[in-house]
Amino acid sequence: MDAGPAGAGGALLLRVVGCAAVFVDTACVTILAPLLPAYVRTIGLSTASVGFLTAAYTVGVLVAAVPAGALVARAGPRTVVVSSLVLLAVASLGFGFAHDVTLLLVARFAQGASGSLTWAGAFAWVTEGTPPGHRGRALGAVAAASAAGNVLGPVAGGMAAAVGVRGVFCAVVVLCAVIALGTALVPVAKQLPAPAQGFPVRALCGRRFRAGACLIVVAGVGAGLIAVLAPLRISRLSGGSASVASVFLAAALGQAVGLRFAGRVSDLRGRRLPIRLGLGLQALVLGGLFWWCPSVPVQGVAVVLAICGNGLLWVPAMALLSERATRAGVTQGHVFGFISLVWAAGYIVGSAGGGGLAGAAGDGVACGLVAFVLACTLLASLRLPRGATGIDPPRRVR
Q1: At what angle do helices 272-284 and 207-236 cross, to 10 degrees?
Q2: How far from chain centre, in Å, is Cα 274?
Q3: Helix or strand (DSSP H, E) at 86
């Protein structure tokens, strides 16, 4: 199994490769939205087909999450990252040359499976190559690359709709090949003995592990609800597609900054502070400002604040789970595969469950319920004794 990279140069190259892999993966996820009108015209997608196409990605993530972690444990993160890039390239060719709905669904499912492989492999690789006292910053950098992919994806999708789908997706294939070649340049200092295979029950039963998993689920629920309600609320306030795009662009940029901030603060001050800031900010916004905004600008500010709060929460939560896994003898691949699984489950609850509740009882009820869950999670984190939470400041590594 791959160990940490040799020297500072190797660590930097590893982080660059990990960021690049996550960036292109996320960009390919968000590239779809601007292309949907073109696929409706050329392939004849129905509203139901669009829904299935959107859901196919999450299904792929769920199906591949646990196998991705097991593959990282057995074959090493480098192999898994390369495999994810190959699968993403194949899926991109499917999108570029698709002539029917079935091929699009298969390609979208493959994108989801590739996403699980990418996140399990890249995050595990970067974590293993980073000293414990600096992992928050490293994870924040990779997560910020994901947020940057959220920004570029719709832009690339707009270009594809204007100049041609095949050319843009062929460019994605080339980019995947370049990143895959870059993985071969990352040096390895030595081979570390692999921790015990599997996912030990004692790790799952540990209080710190349960707390971290709960935080990831809550982050997924909040993200899913925001993704469903934010565009609809902006539209009800007479905001067009440009307004929605501008709001999510600002949110993605703010989230990228927030992710780096959360990672740095969690290393210097401990995991407690950014986790509590994220929970509190989301609870305040979703409980009040988000669902009664009188205008598009105010609604846009609410969306940006809610998404930034979500970013503050899940980077230190990932670092918390990673540290617990290290102490319990669980491979980083397993823990990040598990993170993908629980986050996707939370996202489905927030998007499908929250969206359904909003349609039946109103946006205020759905937002209020999620805000209540966030507030309860915040109160639970305040009540836990310092030693039991596992969110203490890590020892500085010299």
Answers
A1: 30
A2: 17
A3: helix 77-97
Query: Cα–Cα distance between 136 and 107 in angstroms, integer?
Result: 33
Indicate the pLDDT class of residue 114, thresholds 50, 70 and 90: very high
pLDDT tens-digit series, residues 282-309? 999 998 877 677 888 888 898 899 989 9
Distance between CA atoms of residues 72 and 211, nearest Å: 24
A 10 A CB-CB count for 232 gives 14
Task: Give 385's pLDDT tier (boundaries 50, 70, 90).
Answer: very low
How far, in Å, CA of 322 to CA of 54, rounded? Answer: 30
Q: Find where tokens 């980019």 sit.
A: 175
User: SS3 of 73, please?
Assistant: helix
What are the E-state strand segments in 227-375? none
CA–CA separation, 222 and 331 (whole Å): 28
Go through 73-102 and write b for each residue having 16 or more CB atoms within 10 A of its CB, e for each that does not.
bebbbbbbbbbbbbbbbbbbbbbbebeebe
> What is the rounded CA–CA span in Å between residue 370 and residue 150?
24
Say which residues have a Cβ less than 8 Å from residue 383's Cβ, sequence separation at least 6.
none
Burial of 312 (0-12, 13-18, 19+ CB in 10 A): buried
d(CA 55, CA 165): 21
- Average pLDDT (202-226) is 80
Interatomic CA distance for residues 159 and 70, integer angstroms:
37
Two structure tokens written together for 313 = 């929460």
Cα(189)–Cα(199) distance, integer angstroms: 26
Q: How many CB atoms lie within 10 A of CB 183?
A: 23
pTM for this prediction: 0.79
Residue 114 contacts residue 62 (beta carbons within 8 Å): no
> How is 314-339 classified by DSSP, letter by letter?
HHHHHHHHHHHHHHHT--HHHHHHHH
Of 354, 395, 143, the C-alpha closest to 268 is 395
Contacts 24+ apart (CB under 8 A), 102-109: 104/39, 104/43, 104/45, 104/53, 105/52, 105/53, 105/56, 108/32, 108/53, 108/56, 108/57, 108/60, 109/56, 109/57, 109/59, 109/60, 109/63
